[in-house]
Structures are given as structure tokens and as C-alpha cells.
Amino acid sequence: MPKHSLRQRLRYHFENTLASGTGAVIAWLAVLSLLIVIVAASLISVFEIPSSPDTQETWGFWEGLWNSLMRTLDAGNMADDAGWMLRLVTLFVTIGGIFIVATLIGSIGAGFENAIEQLRKGKSVVIESGHTIILGWGPKVFRIVSELVVANANQKRPRIVIMADKDKVEMEDELRQKLPDTGNTRIICRTGSPIDMDDLRLVSMNEAKSIIILSPEDSDFPDTWTIKSILAITNNPERRKEPFHIVAELRDTRNIEAAELVGGDELRVVPAPEIISKLTAQTCRQSGLSVLYSELLDFDGSEIYMAEERSLVGKTYRQIISAYEDSTVIGIRKADGRTLVNPAMDHVLMEGDKVIAITLDDDTMLPSKPPAPSPDESLIVGHDRTEARPERTLIMGWNEKGPSIIREIDNYVAPGSSLLVVSDLEAPASVREELDALVRNTRLEWRQADITTRRVIEETEPDRFDHIILLCDQDMPVQEADARILIALLHLRNYAERTGKDLNIVSEMRDVRNRSLAEVAKADDFIVSDNMVALLIAQISENRDLWAVFDTLFSDQGSEVYIRPVGQYVETGVEMDFHTVIEAAARKGETAIGYRVLRHSQDAAQSYGIVANPVKSKRVTFSPEDRIIVLAED
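Below the sequence we write its predicted C-alpha cells.
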């Protein structure tokens, strides 16, 4: 081991102390100042230097110490010194003080700047409780936060804490720009990695009401990142004993089982591409359905709530759906955790069960007093639904959600249906072979062509198809991919205007801001995007039990939402209340939740004619073209 000189050792230890920060620098400056002052006081005391040539009065050690200290801090004091001996000593003190004070001021300034920089980095612990945590950053953050702000409007001191591997100030600036009014909700940002247990301490996860984990936008393996984040929360040695409420977004359904193994009952997984595929398949077949889903998913207007109602215990589901004036019952949450959407009409509400209903707020979900009036049975018709006919669907464009959308459509359409895919990106042969083997009711056709050209649009003859779906290219930059969809949409609308044919179009866009550029003029032109996933995540973060309800509604199994001709339920041209419609649907084993008025189908201010959760006693006259919205098995 090499030997080091005393000078080298002292220098090494000195450098180590300086590396400790601003406090160490200030301490060394204080020591140096004290040494200078002590030396000066000693010289004045030992040599008995007079403070004034006239009186020959001397200061002594302590008086010399004090005066030397004052000259160290203020060079102007030496102007009053008398006698050259005293002036020389105080000059030495003052020169040393100038350098020391200058260095001290610089060190303090640097330390203050460093402290401000650390605060800007968002590395301090959040002292909050009952807050919502969002881990990750992306376009969905803004819609999730805006929805939570609305949901928290009646809460006391609501807080949202966002942590991402992004500069804190940048996050705050973007939030202020896009969400200038957050009401009574305070938003707190922190910089850190959601997969780092040390960084997770910053957000006080043990005190949180719910935790949202967003899939990263710029990762080749986003689900791996999400699962690691779940693991960092649930397996954290400092975690709380009570279960967490975690809502996590995944991109690949094959990773759901792995995520649930890690998160267990504490986790609710939202498979974003699968949700968008299901929404696309359902909305393309039923005009206006997208507006209803938007109504149910956002916190403006009516949403889905659950509540126990002891006064209804022992009553059948048929009696319960007529028991509310301002709320629309859609199911029952059993005491054992099962969720029944549109259960059998003779199903009995038991002790501990909850009523699931669409209502304006949780405090408006109250049974009517007095009881509901009897329906006008003379207006109820017994027409059966018309037999399903084969349907023709056109998909323009292609991406990873294409196979899921085709499988979902095949679950709904009648045998003998057809589906044509037109895209400049041809689906891999293995995907086409797999789909040909899986679909039962649909004959698939494939055509490679540029969907942004007028010639391709006209050769495809879009008016021959019942439904048209436009899909974004996921491999292109976001804005370029959305621009191609906009061009294709403009060509389709121009074709519709020239031919006088109505086209039922569902478009996908990756950036929700481009929706306004599409100039959506009617509910048929619904644009599916991650915006709907953000709404769903916000809903589940507020109530974990809602996932079972939406999972049923989005699935082809169980009861789903259907928009059907009013003539299948009640007479047209006659005024009636909604209780009569409820009874007409109940006789078919269905739950009526609203209606669509055709004359308002082009009016955005009237929600394109969609009326969800209508006031039951309000009387309305239906035309033959109007529709009833129901929950039904098929």
C-alpha cells in the first residue's frame, strides 16, 4: 500500500468535507475567519498596540477580537483606526475578510440556487392522504385529471399526485396550459421512476385512495414496465397492511395473467387496445352508441353508481327498475361480489346487495315517493325483433387492433356477413390465415391500396357497406397517421355528399386534439381514441367495482347495450311516460335505459338525440324513426 504524505492526507480529507455541500464550505470559511480574528487580536494584545495615539489606550485580547471581527465583516470600519501599527493589523484583517465574505456570499448563493433546483426537481416527500396517484405521463393524463377534477368537485381538499420520469416544472407547465381551471383540486407533480421503491416513497402511496399506472408511450415493452411498477407497489417492504386500489393500463391481453399474479385482488387491469376494439365493433353497428358510452364514462351528466337500499330488500328486479324517478337501474351488485347486469326480472334483492343505477350523482340515487304510477299497457306492443340479416363491413387501414375488431364484429353479425379490409399495409399472411379459421359468420376479403386517394375510395363503393371503420397506422408518427385518417374521412364524406348516401363511419385517431379537425357533424362519425380508455380508467379509480359493469357491457357475453326501433316496444305518435317503456322492455327480459330522438340526431347540443337516464314521469311522443336504448342478452 503506497504511503501518502501528511499534506496529501490533509488535502484529501479537506476535499471530502467540501464535497459535503454548502454547509461544509460555510463551516471552513467560519474557521478561517476565526483564525484571522484570533491572530489579529493576539497581535494587538501581545504588542499592546494602542487604539489611539493620543491616549495610548489599548484594547486587550477580547476587545481586539471584537473589533477585528467587525472589520472582517465591514471594511469601512478601518477608516477610523489610529496609529500605523493598528492600521497594518486591521488592514490584514480587512483584506482577509473581503475574500472570506465574498466567498461566503458566493457559497450561500450557490447553495440557495441548489436548494431551489432540488425543489424544482420534485424530490421532496408529498405530505397528503386520501389522494389519487398517477404514475406515468402521456396524452391520457390530461383527460384523466380533468375527469377526476369533476369527480372531486364536492370533496374536501382533493389532491392528485403525478409522478413520472419527466421534469417536474415541465409537467406543471403542461398541466396549467391544458387544464387552467382545476377547481378545488390541487395537482402535485414529482419527478421519479415508478419502478423505483425509493422514488415511490415521495408520493406517500400508503396514504393514497387509489393508484393509476399508465402504460409508457415511448417503450418497446410497455407492459413489462407496468408490471414492474405493480410489483414495486405491492411487494414494497414499507407497504401498508390494507389493500391498495390499483388501476393499471396494459397493451397486450397476453400479459393480463402475469399482472394479476403480481397485483392480485388489489389490481384492476384495463387492456387499452382490447377496449378500443370492442368499442369500435359495437359503435360501428349502432349509430349513436358512442354518445351513450361517453355519457356513462365521463363525470359530466349521469354516471353509474352503486348503493344499498334497504327499503327495496325482498323486491324483484322488475319492481326495482320502476322504483326510481331520477335514476335508471341497470343491475345488482351481490353481497358476494358478483355483478349482475340486466338480471332476470324475478331476481330478488337480498340483504347486503347493492342497486346499480345510472344517476346524476350518488346523492340523487333515491327511490321515488310516492311509488311510480302504473304503465299504460294499452300502448305496449308485442312485436318481435326482426330476424338479423347479413351485414357488410368495410375496414380501411390496418394496425394491431385489426384482428380483435374483426373477431368482435364476427361475434355480433348474422351468418353470411362479409368484411373487406382495404389498406396499404397488408396484414401478415399468418394473421389472415388465423382470422379465416376463427371467424364463423363472416367472409373476409383483403385488398392492398392507398386509402387516402379518391380513386380507391370510389372503386371500393363505400355506399355498399353497412359499416365503415378507419384505422390508424401505429407505426407512423402520431400526427402523420392522424392526417391520413383525416384525408380518408374527407374523401368518404365527399363521396356521401355526391351520391346522396348516408355512411356510418367510425374513425380511430391517436391524438384526441385532432378530433376537432375532423369537424364531426353527427354521432355516426364517432372517433375512437385513447380518450375513451382515459375516461374508463378515471371511473374505475373512483370505484373499483365499476370494472365488472363495463366489462359486461363491452363484452359480447351477457347483456349489452342495444339501440332498437321504438315500434318494437310501444306505439308511436302517442304521448306516454317512460314507465310505460320500462314495462314494454321488461316483458322482453330487457332493461330500458333511454331513447334516441331522430330529429336531434345531427345536433351536438342535444347529444345527437341520445337521452340517457330520462326522468320517468316526463311524457314524450315517439316517432316511428326514434329508438329505444335497452340492455339485452342479444
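Residues 84-120 form the longest helix (37 residues).
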